[in-house]
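2024-03-11 09:14:02 INFO worker-7 job=invfold-0412 stage=load source=structure_tokens
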């Protein structure tokens, strides 16, 4: 029957983000030997991005399966569900501009806080920090070989690729690479917002769409604001402008026609970090291999339209639950992959198309 029929196969998860840790926790609770390999040096190496809204039909389902839903709801910011829309030209702010009030239960939590919640429920030695995967040598029978940048090598029976947009696990299954969307986010933070900025943004998020420019602002814990200035510009043009005038001048200068109160948000930001947005093709599929699978952005990278972490965590829980439910890992993974791929194929075309519509003059839909 081979190693994949062992009662407790050796399982490696590549990537210690919300998806990888969710899968690890469910597998651990199911009695499996599991190790998470993460390239970062520790769980506190960097700020883990902005706030996340976990949906009741996806992210919260995954946390329920992991036994953490009550703990999440105890620390989540339920008031953070508030959404506002800003008119870029007048600066007028509309409260509750997206969808019916209370249409979905989706409280907010900082990405770093979610990671710590998951880490706290796992044995301390589950995550091997400082392990950046450089190559996976998959085998159709027997174990798979993992090679890390620090020189470590490991042999395992099952590999779950939760290693994001530039997944090394995906590279062992497909030659397909993410494609640029033509949109770049410039990420900034406001650590101590002035009273007028705090009042404008409110308790949740503010969305402003102005054609080829957009502005997304989220209140995080500690009253810090996470700001994404989004520009639809050619990458080489951005390179030239940043070299000529610097990143801050490029970003703030791209919003000169916007209302003063919205431009004030950009002026208050720390230095910006450039983050080009990529996506896999909407019809992406990988070549199946026994004992290797993908979840989250590794499986279906799409533009940030508000479903990413929820979909990734649901993927993780589906794969982990399948492995816990039956001893035949090959069949379990195949069944879970079918669910993951079918769900993604239903969402990706609209996500990709909808994201591009945000950066036109057409009326845009709620990004969440």
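2024-03-11 09:14:09 INFO worker-7 stage=emit residues=368
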């Amino acid at each position: 029957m081979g190693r994949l029929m062992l009662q407790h196969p050796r399982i490696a998860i590549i990537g210690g983000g919300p998806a990888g840790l969710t899968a690890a926790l469910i597998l651990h609770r199911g009695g499996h030997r599991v190790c998470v390999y993460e390239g970062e040096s520790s769980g506190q190496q960097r700020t883990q991005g902005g706030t996340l809204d976990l949906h009741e039909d996806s992210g919260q389902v995954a946390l329920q399966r992991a036994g953490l839903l009550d703990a999440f709801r105890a620390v989540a910011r339920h008031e953070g569900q508030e959404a506002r829309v800003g008119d870029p030209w007048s600066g007028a702010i509309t409260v509750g501009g997206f969808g019916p009030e209370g249409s979905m239960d989706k409280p907010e939590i900082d990405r770093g806080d979610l990671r710590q919640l998951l880490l706290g429920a796992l044995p301390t030695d589950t995550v091997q920090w400082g392990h950046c995967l450089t190559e996976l040598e998959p085998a159709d029978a027997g174990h798979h070989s993992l090679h890390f940048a620090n020189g470590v090598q490991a042999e395992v029976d099952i590999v779950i690729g939760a290693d994001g947009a530039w997944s090394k696990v995906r590279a062992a299954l497909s030659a397909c690479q993410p494609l640029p969307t033509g949109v770049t986010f410039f990420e900034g933070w406001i650590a101590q917002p002035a009273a007028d900025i705090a009042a404008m943004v409110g308790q949740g998020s503010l969305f402003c769409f102005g054609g080829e420019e957009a502005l997304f602002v989220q209140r995080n814990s500690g009253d810090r604001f996470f700001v994404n200035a989004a520009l639809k510009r050619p990458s080489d043009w951005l390179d030239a402008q940043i070299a000529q005038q610097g990143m801050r001048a490029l970003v703030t200068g791209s919003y000169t026609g916007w209302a003063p109160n919205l431009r004030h948000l950009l002026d208050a930001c720390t230095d910006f970090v450039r983050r080009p947005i990529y996506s896999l093709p909407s019809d992406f599929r990988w070549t199946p291999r026994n004992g290797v699978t993908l979840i989250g952005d590794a499986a279906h990278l799409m533009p940030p339209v508000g479903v990413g972490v929820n979909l990734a965590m649901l993927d993780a829980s589906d794969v982990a639950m399948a492995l816990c439910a039956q001893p035949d890992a090959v069949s379990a993974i195949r069944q879970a992959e079918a669910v993951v791929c079918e769900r993604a194929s239903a969402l990706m075309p609209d996500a990709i198309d909808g994201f591009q519509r945000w950066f036109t003059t057409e009326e845009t839909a709620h990004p969440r």
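2024-03-11 09:14:09 INFO worker-7 stage=report msg="Residues 329-357 form the longest helix (29 residues)."
2024-03-11 09:14:10 INFO worker-7 job finished
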